[in-house]
Amino acid sequence: METQVRKYNLQGENIGTAAVDNRLAQAEANSQLIKDYIVALRANARQWSANTQGRSEVNHTKKKPHAQKGGGRARQGSLSAPQYKGGGRAFGPKPKFDQHVRINQKERLAAIRALLAEKIRDSRLIVLKAEEVAEPKTKLFSTFIDQCDLQGRVLFLGEGSFVDISVEDVIHRFSIPTDKHTNIVKSIRNIPHATFKLVSNISGYDVMRAGSIVILEPALEELQEWLLKGLKG
Fold it and tell me: Residue 197: enclosing H or E segment and its boundaries?
């Protein structure tokens, strides 16, 4: 069974529909699984490089601010204490290492499928007919977004380039750099809230943030092949 999604050309004209496998269009996942996946993605994006100096590290005098007794004031041991200007920070952040949160690959794919399925069910994923863009044209893509009434952040998805290498009769597929979408990238880079990514590089966070998703025809095939690999049905 298949679900139909709207298909447009670059002029923003509806030219029919494209088929999406129901296993993707109707995918669901536990809400806690999706939350854990997004939280892990955001945690792994942190640099963990924040660093502050404690009282033993600051370049400051170690002189006692005033006499221990006789002044009627609380005793103080050093001007490098946190309560003094220029003093060290108490319990400040230090660089952390090995903070990576491991993401189970099956859970990752399940979360991305569920987030994409939500976009499909809400009619916020459309297919763009593959057309050659001879030169960068920001106005063309800006008009396309307006004609299709795409709301919020717009995520454009394109297909990647791969090479198959046989090792001991086993075929291994490797992603290789591609510049086939250079003109599309240059066309949309000055459009606010519009981004372009290859299908193989997207995460569930990209899908979740996007208000609308525009996927090129060849990229739709690649997306389904990737997300549905190994699924029964």
Answer: strand 194-198
Q: Is the pLDDT of residue 118 over 70?
A: yes
What is the spatial distance between Cα 207 and Cα 212, in angstroms, rounded to a whole number?
Answer: 9
Q: Does residue 197 carry a pLDDT above 80?
A: yes
Centroid of chain to Cα 191: 18
The single residue listed with the structure tokens 């806690």 is 32
Place of tokens 């990752």: 108
DSSP state for residue 173 in the 8-state scheme: E
Structural domain boundaries in the chain: 2-47+102-227, 52-92
The answer to whether 222 and 159 have CB atoms below 8 angstroms apart is yes
pTM: 0.82
Q: How many CB atoms lie within 10 A of CB 137?
A: 17
Give tens-digit pLDDT for 132-146.
Answer: 888 999 999 999 999
Q: Which of 62, 112, 104 is nearest to 87 (CA)?
A: 62
Q: Residue type for 189, please? A: R
Please tell me the predicted confidence (pLDDT) of residue 173.
73
DSSP code string of 90-133: TT------S-PPP--HHHHHHHHHHHHHHHHHTT-EEEE-----
Per-residue model confidence (pLDDT) at position 1: 78
Angle at 82 between CA 77 and CA 83, to 5 degrees: 80
- Topology adopted by domain 2-47+102-227: Ribosomal Protein L4; Chain: A; (3.40.1370)
List the one residue out of 196, 212, 213 whose CA is nearest residue 151. Answer: 212
